[in-house]
Amino acid sequence: MKVLVVIGTRPEAIKMAPLIKKLGKVDGIVCKVCNTGQHKDLLNPILDFFKTGVDYSLDVMLPKQSLHQLTANIITNIQFVFDEYLPDYVLVHGDTTTSFAVSLAAFYSGIKVAHVEAGLRTFNKQAPFPEEINRSLTARLADVHFAPTPLAAQNLAKEGITQQVIVTGNTVIDALYDAIQLMDVENDEVVQLKQTIDFSKKLILFTGHRRENFGAGFEQIFAALKELTENRDDVQIVYPVHPNPNVKLLAEKYFAHSEKIKLIAPLSYGPFTWLMQQSYLIMTDSGGIQEEAPSLGKPVLVLREVTERPEAVEAGTVLIVGTDKEKIKSYTLQLLDDTNFYQEFSRKINPYGDGKASERIIIYFKELTPQF
Asked: Cα separation of 246 and 139, whole Å?
């Protein structure tokens, strides 16, 4: 059986790395990897860290490219890979433009699609944009759905998708545990972090990149971060700045001269997991971090109005605070100063799995191999 795993963004590379490595060791399965290049510069360090090879590179990203152009380029270029390799299954992940476009192209080519991290929903097609539509349309195109949680499987069922739905846990937890084992604390990036950051203070790790927060949303978030540090000497905020100009230029405007808010370059995944471990709390609009941080016992404040990961909210490992400046400040101060409130978060069990999601996905394909 020939399997093609397609990735294009940094989160996809992280979350699919454990699965790629395990698929390559299964008798009766030939696994190849295609990188569309949607996140070209951010993705390559992930591949190097996990030692994940790439067999096909499409390099589709162009300067100032619209979503229309990106989608069309992926559909057109992936066809050449399909025609050469002739895979039996294409594996895609989550909610990216790569996932949707590749799934549609696979459908056109008569190739079966397996969707990893299937079933996440906000039920609002504008939030997050374009991810909610990407994952919803991928679900309509997929033949197999690897749902990370029972709730994700229920979301699929609400849409009439009940066949070939397997609850596996989330592969991001597998990747997190792998990264902790692989991480070298003498890594150059970690050494630089130790020289840059004052770890004697309570470290708040902040990440932000969502399109839905561009403009007024980030104005509110950045103002909250700045005000949080004005009257406190026990806090250090660290922000690995996303390269998107809509984020980067505004961050530099707000924080360029702040000693208490450190702007650093995006980190490789290993050093980033190390920095998460050193943090007191995490503020983010990222989906993956909502899943990872609870396994490290770190409270998470979600800087979005809605999340497609309500399991974490229900489990009490994350709290949605949106982009309201006063709300962000209020909950951050409570976590900083109220030990009992902090421990309510940090002691909760992660609802996203036990680090064995990839193994459960592998079982499905092992059972298929006698047919090939």
From this structure: 30
